[in-house]
Amino acid sequence: MADYSYNQVTPELIEEFKKIVPGKVFTGDEINADYSHDEMPIYGKGAPTVLIEATTTEDISAIVKLCFENSIPVIPRGAGTGLTGASVALHGGVMIDMSKMNKILEYDKENFVVRVEAGVLLNDLAEDAQKQGLLYPPDPGEKFATLGGNVSTNAGGMRAVKYGCTRDYVRAMTVVLPTGEIVKLGATVSKTSTGYSLLNLMIGSEGTLGIITELTLKLIPAPKETISLIIPYENLEDCIATVPKFFMEHLQPQAIEFMEKEIVLASERYLGKSVFPQQLEGVDIGAYLLVTFDGEDMESLEEITEKAAEVVLEAGAIDVLVADTPAKKKDAWAARSSFLEAIEAETKLLDECDVVVPVNQIASYLTFVKSLESNYDFTIKSFGHAGDGNLHIYACANDMDEAEFKKQVADFMDIIYKKAAECGGLISGEHGIGYGKMDYLAAFAGETSMRLMKGIKEVFDPKMILNPGKICYKL
Amino acid sequence: MADYSYNQVTPELIEEFKKIVPGKVFTGDEINADYSHDEMPIYGKGAPTVLIEATTTEDISAIVKLCFENSIPVIPRGAGTGLTGASVALHGGVMIDMSKMNKILEYDKENFVVRVEAGVLLNDLAEDAQKQGLLYPPDPGEKFATLGGNVSTNAGGMRAVKYGCTRDYVRAMTVVLPTGEIVKLGATVSKTSTGYSLLNLMIGSEGTLGIITELTLKLIPAPKETISLIIPYENLEDCIATVPKFFMEHLQPQAIEFMEKEIVLASERYLGKSVFPQQLEGVDIGAYLLVTFDGEDMESLEEITEKAAEVVLEAGAIDVLVADTPAKKKDAWAARSSFLEAIEAETKLLDECDVVVPVNQIASYLTFVKSLESNYDFTIKSFGHAGDGNLHIYACANDMDEAEFKKQVADFMDIIYKKAAECGGLISGEHGIGYGKMDYLAAFAGETSMRLMKGIKEVFDPKMILNPGKICYKL
């Protein structure tokens, strides 16, 4: 590993920044403490020396060039909703707040794309596209992340089972490289075999290879109708076993989420609203599927619903509750969307993982994870995307010493990451590596792949100034 | 640029190879002349010193290690159906014929994937999957390419408009790196945010970053029915203008191909069969769309067909001919699939490009290309994927001197590649860069992107032995 060192940001340099973006440069007490951490405070341990609100690609380029010349770390930050510390300024330096570049620039309805600044929030694009009769299919749980952040982690979300992940919707991007150079990658086309895919390399690179400033994203015509089903089961095994049957029957759900009883109860405490039945026909419910179908008209959706009901009831579901009005659908999905907040609201110490395993391994994997609970002083809560094997597993504690919590969690994570690999899965489905998961990535990927990743990082960032100490390169 | 030099393959080294893969090592006259070129003979200008039939990942690893130690070029070759010289041994060395690793290893019907050796032909997987009730959606025109070759060019094909490209169906792969190390990338999951996507970097890298030996590919349940429409128009402009309307009406065609009259006539001469009408209602037909829809039952397909007919007739189509029997569908698509062979059969000198432009630019782009024809002594024929803007443009000559042909084609390509970029398109939709298109890639991508690509190549291949002189690195 090469030796990299950084310089302090000097007052002269701050003056230079102010000349480039007057009124957008902040230091010291002007910087809110929120900029020292993301949504997972356990990974918060560094504040930037300077915070700059992003304005244009050209301004960012000028700022990064100065940082490159002076060996100053640069950390791009979206809305700070990450869960692995990827946007934390571990080595100080200049943080660029991308959430200020938040304009939806242009819809191209003939080619079904939209051009946006990278700081646009997912929720804002989703709502705006809907008004145009269009759908931006990626639907990560956190609606108030920036699209640049979504691309940087290849965020997946609820609808990945039918529509794929963020990667599948990125047609083109403008990037400021660690040298300050600006490159445009991709085009408004769906096919490409035009050299190494720098576009795909940038996707999921968590702000370590370049700062994404503008995106051209694919849209699709919005399905006219949706219908959601709440499907209760006695236990998680029965619940998960149903999942492949949806596909074999060509039912094409837009989303299939699973949730265990405990997390549903936490959500109901948080929202003060009960949506999911807890007992049915004398049976205690242990787990649920929440399934959504989309289509062109209610008639065909009702047909699909009937077929789906037949399939799941035969496979052990206790009942099928149809959410066919806007209010019912909203309640069911609001419950699902509040899981993380519900956990946060009643938990002092929190860590999580978002492994992804083959769909037919979910049940046995979760049974294994649950079996570990008695070894630790924290509790384990889980939910996730049953259609694609992406599991969110939370270690939660209220009465533990932080150091002890971290120690026990490290042990727990080590075991469950290894198990995920044994099951043919991966370390992270959508949250990324940041710096919180670096050791697990290294153990999983192996020396050769890590050498390649480090080599790629060095090619893009010869002075190691961009978001240093993340993914593959410890500093 | 660093200085790389290669050693000759010595008799001793050949003996070493023979120890690793007895009976699979060929030299001199034992090597068929076909191994000196791909499907585009104009890019054939190098023969390997040694040809080795691939057996296992481990054997390839052992062979590549020897080549790495001895600085011998290694060139992986699939079925040799490429169109840019990507598999030509420009610097001699060892060619590894991957088409001999052609076993379909295992279907996993719960996770909807199949594991194959990289030398399996697309056609073989397509037919075998169909027998299992499954569909491998990518459908490049050349059915007798290897799947490893498809992945190496991110092949697109007919069904990309609905189902995406090869990239979207690669879940995992085993790769032998230029150092001989074996890495496994990806997993049987659809979501990932697990470090830089080496998997996606490998896809489309045309055998320059590693030798793909095994693939885990995504399958989908096979649609139960398909129906095809032949839609004749007076001219290409009207024809192309219809295309976005299919999407706005949510009709989701599986494929939309356009073809000009001249290429249809060539195909009919080649096949001795007339499928497409040449005059209708007193109007001379100038262009056609060939559209396929898929679905669960004929009833819903007939509804879609009716709606599609309404839309296109209103937009200027002369008629809509329905191919709803297996024989009619086969004839229509056989005509489309024979275009390249039909051109080859009546052409002595041939070069091509496969630019991709935004869908709403196809008509004006092709009008521009056609307007250049009078400047040259060759004729221009075109067809392509109207749904995704991927155009196949052929320069064809029978009475030209080869040097003069190459000179004129270089001039022509230079102009049309520049125009594609101006239209917001890319150099290649699916054929790749190989060595035939390197100058055009360099001009299009620009210095910075090319520096990054070269840097990546150096990280993977420090001695520059794997498929040297392709994509980004001239030697």
TrEMBL record, chains A, B:
It comes from the Bacteria. One of its GO terms (molecular function) is oxidoreductase activity. Keywords: FAD, Flavoprotein, Oxidoreductase. Residues 43-222 form the FAD-binding PCMH-type domain. Pfam families: FAD-oxidase_C, FAD_binding_4. Its cofactor is FAD. InterPro entries: FAD-bd_oxidored_4_C, FAD-bd_PCMH, FAD-bd_PCMH-like_sf, FAD-bd_PCMH_sub1, FAD-bd_PCMH_sub2, FAD-linked_Oxase-like_C, FAD-linked_OxidoTrans_Type4, Oxid_FAD_bind_N. The keyword Disulfide bond does not apply. This is 2-hydroxy-acid oxidase. It comes from Eubacterium ramulus.
